[in-house]
Specification:
The chain has 271 residues and is of the alpha+beta class. 58% of the residues lie in helices and 11% in strands.
């Protein structure tokens, strides 16, 4: 028997051995299990159809994720409809709870974007908002003041000054927001008087921060820059003096017997 026949007999024996442990009954039962554990449906969006092959315990979140990956529909803008019925927005809802049979068709719709209406804040809301922002900005500026009390590198000085200027700009914007915040607003005179007193207090607090803390940071940063430039100038001058000291100095010859080039080149007369 040749080698090829031996190989074929060996392969055929293994096939028969494997087939003996997998009967037709087991195969039919496996097919039943697959059919009962899988759930097929179609997802339609603007004339495009995609097949869904999910498990029977699948939820709405899986369909939403599939629609987002396929058509880029945001989950909060997706509406799933089956036979004219909205499936809702609860992602944990199983599909079986809707009575959707395998092979059904689900429509994916895109809901309109929510309309955002920018409502103008009332004077009281505006003042409360600014009142909550001012202490945080003051703390940031006081942090810059603490940094200025220590030694800083030029980069640290630049960063401190930039942070202080940003906070000062935000304080100035709050002042502009309070300017004319009572124009065209009708309210009780006593309430209006109380809000105006509150605005005056906030303006005074902001002005105090700008006149004292911000100015202190700017002066400290300016002094740091000046001292840095002066130290750099002294360092450069010291380098120049050191280079001059290291270079050799050629002094003129003081030997009385030395002759100048003109004297050495002149011809001598015979006596």
């Amino acid at each position: 028997m040749c080698i090829r026949d031996r190989y074929q007999r060996r392969v055929r024996g293994k096939e028969l051995q494997m087939g003996s442990c997998w009967s037709s009954t087991n195969a039919d039962q496996a097919g039943v299990n697959v059919r009962t554990t899988r759930w097929n449906a179609s997802l339609v969006h603007e004339g495009q159809c995609r097949n869904l092959n999910l498990t029977v315990d699948a939820t709405l979140s899986e369909i939403k994720r599939f629609a987002n990956e396929t058509w880029g529909i945001a989950p909060n803008r997706l509406q799933l409809v089956w036979e004219g019925k909205d499936l809702g927005t609860d992602d944990a809802t199983p599909l079986q709870s809707f009575g959707i049979s395998s092979g059904g068709t689900i429509e994916a719709r895109v809901t309109p974007a929510p309309v955002v209406v920018n409502r103008k804040a009332t004077p009281e809301e505006l003042l409360n908002q600014i009142q909550s922002e001012v202490p945080a900005l003051k703390e940031r500026i006081l942090g810059c003041v603490e940094v200025c009390r220590g030694d800083q590198t030029p980069d640290q000085t630049k960063a401190t000054l930039a942070e202080c200027n940003l906070c000062n700009e935000l304080l100035t914007q709050n002042i502009l927001k309070m300017d004319g915040c009572f124009d065209g607003v009708e309210m009780d005179p006593s309430e209006l008087k109380a809000l105006k007193a509150k605005r005056k207090e906030l303006l005074g607090a902001i002005q105090k921060i700008q006149d004292h803390d911000v100015v202190h940071v700017r002066r400290s940063c300016s002094k740091s820059n000046d001292s840095g430039e002066a130290s750099a100038g002294h360092h450069g001058a010291a380098e120049l003096r050191g280079a001059a000291a290291e270079s050799p100095v050629h002094s003129p010859t003081t030997d009385s017997n030395a002759q100048s080039p003109a004297q050495s080149s002149a011809p001598t007369e015979s006596q």
